[in-house]
Design a protein that fits this description.
Blueprint (H helix, E strand, L loop, with lengths): L2 H12 L3 H10 L4 H11 L14 E5 L2 E5 L4 H21 E7 L2 E7 H23 L3 E7 L4 H26 L1
Antiparallel strand pairs: 1-2, 3-4, 3-5
Length: 173
């Protein structure tokens, strides 16, 4: 399909002037679907609602219909709200556990550990690392499957134990 045919097809489909259609095609490197989306974002098509929400539209390119499926802001808001609810629920059902010689020292919800790491990572991470040398171990427990993460944390503890053993072995020689 040559440039003139694309401009005409876009002009008819989007109900815009020849100049607007040509500008949209140039901005989208000749791709009809991208040009349609460009025009929708600019608010120049009949498919854009008065409140700025973009509805589903389609463009036929070489006999094949391609769709632009943009979600409305209210749908995105609902998805974000559901994500926050499920994250909060999972954060309360799962726990970060600190143990020393098989005795639980601290058991806090995962969300509390995340907040602690976000705001005090510069203190929390070094303390956690150093405490490994004193036999403190970390794990997660709860509704979610933490087997892989807990195995990795166990390996970190074993690695620190090996470092301590090597250091003590060199110290004795």
């Amino acid at each position: 399909m040559d440039e003139f045919e694309k401009v005409e097809k876009l002009r008819q489909r989007a109900n815009v002037s020849y100049e607007e259609a040509k500008k949209a095609l140039e901005a989208s490197n000749g791709d009809l679907l991208d040009a349609m989306i460009y025009l929708e974002k600019e608010g120049k098509t009949a498919n854009t609602m008065s409140n700025g929400e973009i509805v589903v539209s389609s463009v036929v390119v070489d006999g094949e219909e391609k769709k632009s499926n943009k979600k409305t802001s209210s749908e995105n808001g609902e998805k974000f709200k559901e994500f926050c609810k499920s994250s909060w629920k999972k954060g309360n059902e799962n726990f970060f556990v600190v143990t020393h010689k098989s005795n639980v020292i601290i058991k806090i919800p995962v969300w509390a550990m995340i907040v602690l790491l976000i705001f005090t990572f510069h203190v929390t991470l070094p303390v956690m690392l150093i405490s490994l040398f004193f036999g403190v171990r970390y794990s997660f427990m709860g509704e979610a499957d933490f087997e892989t993460v807990n195995k990795a944390m166990d390996k970190a503890g074993e690695y620190v134990d090996n470092i301590k053993d090597e250091f003590n072995g060199n110290k004795e020689n």
